[in-house]
Amino acid sequence: MIGARHPMDMIRSEAMQLVQFIIPIESSHLTVSYLGELGLVQFRDLNANKNLFQRTHANQIKRCGEMGRKLRFFKDHMAKAGILPSVLSEMSQMTQAHTDFDELEAILSELEDDLIRVNANNLKLLRTYNEHLEYMLVIQKVGEFLYAKQNLTAALRSQIHDTDRSEMITDPSKQIKLGFVSGLIPKEKTMAFERTLFRATRGNMFLKQAAVENLVTDPVSGDKIAKNVFVAFYSGERAKEKIIKICDSFGANRYPHADDLERRREIIEEVSRKISELKVTVDVGLQHRENLLKHINDQFAQWNLLVKKEKSVYHILNMFSFDVTKKCLVAEGWSPIFASNQIQSILQKATIDSNSQIGSIFQVLHTKESPPTYFHTNKFTMAFQEIVDAYGVAKYQEINPAVYTIITFPFLFAVMFGDWGHGICLLLITLYFIVREKKLSSQKLGDITEMIFGGRYVILMMALSSIYTGLIYNEFFSVPFDLFGKTAYACSDTSCINAYTQGLTKVRQTYSFGVDPQWHGSRTELPFLNSLKMKMSILLGVTQMNLGIILSYFNGNFFKNNLNIWHQFVPQMIFLNSLFGYLSILIIVKWCTGSKADLYHVMIYMFLNPTDELGENQLFIGQKILQVILLLFAVVSVPWMLFPKPFLLKRQHQARHQRRDFAMETLFTVDNDTIELNPDHDSNSDKEFEFSEVFVHQLIHTIEFVLGAVSNTASYLRLWALSLAHSELSSVFYDKVLILAWGYKNVFIIIIGIIIFLFATIGVLLVMETLSAFLHALRLHWVEFQNKFYEGDGYKFAPFSFALLSEGGDD
């Protein structure tokens, strides 16, 4: 059991360690199985120079692959039989450990042989049954044809050449004896069949056909198709041979028929009896097959998981190196430090359960290799962590942006999607997925549905935030409500004729929460909301960028990187806040004082003419001097970011190189005979320090930050733009569709208007606008926020875990 965890463990990845296992061969399989149940060790491949066929357990993996093939064979037949796959129960999981793998292999082989034999027998019986059904159809139809045999003979004689006709009539030995071939042929081939017969026999045959009313099950393919019964009358053996060959080439099923009426009656009785017997036999065979598949299905999930586990265990064992002298296996891997006691307990348990005389050895290795990144997430935080990981996996113990993304991502989305009516719609959708998550998690969903289900808690936070910002904007499908008291404004006259052209008069205290409902529809609505949302976007953007830079300080402090603190964090804070932090203060001061100062003018002339008087744009005393000081700070911070760091890095490298040379000389002086140097020793520290490369990298970083400070701040204006677009679209759909249709006082037009409004709201505002706001919020986090502190060049911790097998495929 994992010990107590700090509530803020997600802020940095778990502390990891490189561990080594020395495992006796007799307990290796059980040890790896127990570690797979734990799921907290990521093994390293110590046999990377060998291909898969050269490894120790290649044959066992082939056996597992063959068993997996048999299980897939069973699964396909169960799907065809309409048998739903069983769910792995807790009882079957308990009995799974007692199932012997060799015994399971024998069981699967026996069941496969049984199923193949049953399928072959059923197929043979079904074919015979279908052949007899066709035979019965042919007997019935051909019997009708043969009643007119004399007419058919006369018709055929009339087709014989006139030179031979008289001779055939006068000479009894040359009288025509008609034979016939009967059977069934697919309906779509009848025209070509008749034409081929006529040409092959040169017209010396007579073909009669009749369509079968119902579809006929073909004995060969088993498909139900439309067929025709045919009778081809001929004269002579050569014509018979030709007709038979043509029937075979067209896939026609031929059946014999007796001329004698009594014999025909006996055949009908015999065929009817066989059909009844075959029907009973086929039903018994199908029932036996269904019982066999149900028996397989009862244990299928358990067997399938066991085969997957065995295959994964042998894959891991193939990563171990074999120590010939000690007759043991050596393994290496990464694991969290908190799991050390659990791993040691598992090793002891595996030794006892396998009756091994020698215990496994667990030891920690010291390495300079960067460990994998492991964040302990749950079903709520997982989706937010995936959003961050899609940009890049955090470097080992780097600050995790997902902790802040849980709050900032839904909120920035809601700033662009602020409508509490639309927010309620999103909330209802995500509540459906949350309430039914246990059932839906075990089902196979479509790509889009699975994506929505995976991000259900992200959508939940987005919906709640949208309801909050919608209450601030006072928009419910663009309609304002007096939810928090009465409006502070009233009409200037009793008629209110000019209320939305000449403005309103404030008659009471300011509306307690959010935008006053009376602003909506007034002549000052758009300028007011534009100014409000634009300035709010700048404040949010500067706040989030400052948060990113502050987090870079904590990263530098954690990794003991004073250079990044003094020559990256400090000048970046100075530069950003000297310009845009100052702009944010001006916005707040203007809101508090009600000043009419032009902030565009203030910021532009702060650069162009910093010594000019501000005049009516002055917001407080000493503003001019403060602007000059902030401008000087901003200018000084640029070379501060650019020059000191490369030179200090070069000096650190030279000092480290001198200390190493001095240490080596000391070692030679102490004992030149006993010290043997490894030429590859500390190869990482021998790398040449490329000053030009470091300087260019720092130059690019400085230019990127300076230009990015401007472009990133401007990028946050997308919050204003999308919020305004969402509000205006919602207003257009409400005013120009719903209200306009309602004004016609016609039921049909009203219904059409409601339908159009619903489709526009769902399709445009709840689907397209949601996706658009999501992507823009994603960009603001990835580019504007995370690039201030997040490197994202790590690799994810991928432990060997049986828990992941149920989520994967058959491999």
From TrEMBL:
<feature type="transmembrane region" description="Helical">
    <location>
        <begin position="574"/>
        <end position="591"/>
    </location>
</feature>
<dbReference type="Pfam" id="PF01496">
    <property type="entry name" value="V_ATPase_I"/>
</dbReference>
<comment type="similarity">
    <text>Belongs to the V-ATPase 116 kDa subunit family.</text>
</comment>
<comment type="function">
    <text>Essential component of the vacuolar proton pump (V-ATPase), a multimeric enzyme that catalyzes the translocation of protons across the membranes. Required for assembly and activity of the V-ATPase.</text>
</comment>
<feature type="transmembrane region" description="Helical">
    <location>
        <begin position="536"/>
        <end position="554"/>
    </location>
</feature>
<keyword id="KW-0472">Membrane</keyword>
<keyword id="KW-0813">Transport</keyword>
<keyword id="KW-0375">Hydrogen ion transport</keyword>
<keyword id="KW-0175">Coiled coil</keyword>
<dbReference type="GO" id="GO:0051117">
    <property type="term" value="F:ATPase binding"/>
</dbReference>
<dbReference type="InterPro" id="IPR026028">
    <property type="entry name" value="V-type_ATPase_116kDa_su_euka"/>
</dbReference>
<protein>
    <recommendedName>
        <fullName>V-type proton ATPase subunit a</fullName>
    </recommendedName>
</protein>
<dbReference type="GO" id="GO:0016471">
    <property type="term" value="C:vacuolar proton-transporting V-type ATPase complex"/>
</dbReference>
<keyword id="KW-0812">Transmembrane</keyword>
<dbReference type="GO" id="GO:0000220">
    <property type="term" value="C:vacuolar proton-transporting V-type ATPase, V0 domain"/>
</dbReference>
<dbReference type="GO" id="GO:0007035">
    <property type="term" value="P:vacuolar acidification"/>
</dbReference>
<feature type="coiled-coil region">
    <location>
        <begin position="94"/>
        <end position="128"/>
    </location>
</feature>
<dbReference type="InterPro" id="IPR002490">
    <property type="entry name" value="V-ATPase_116kDa_su"/>
</dbReference>
<dbReference type="GO" id="GO:0046961">
    <property type="term" value="F:proton-transporting ATPase activity, rotational mechanism"/>
</dbReference>
<feature type="transmembrane region" description="Helical">
    <location>
        <begin position="456"/>
        <end position="473"/>
    </location>
</feature>
<feature type="transmembrane region" description="Helical">
    <location>
        <begin position="411"/>
        <end position="435"/>
    </location>
</feature>
<keyword id="KW-1133">Transmembrane helix</keyword>
<keyword id="KW-0406">Ion transport</keyword>
<feature type="transmembrane region" description="Helical">
    <location>
        <begin position="747"/>
        <end position="768"/>
    </location>
</feature>
<feature type="transmembrane region" description="Helical">
    <location>
        <begin position="625"/>
        <end position="643"/>
    </location>
</feature>
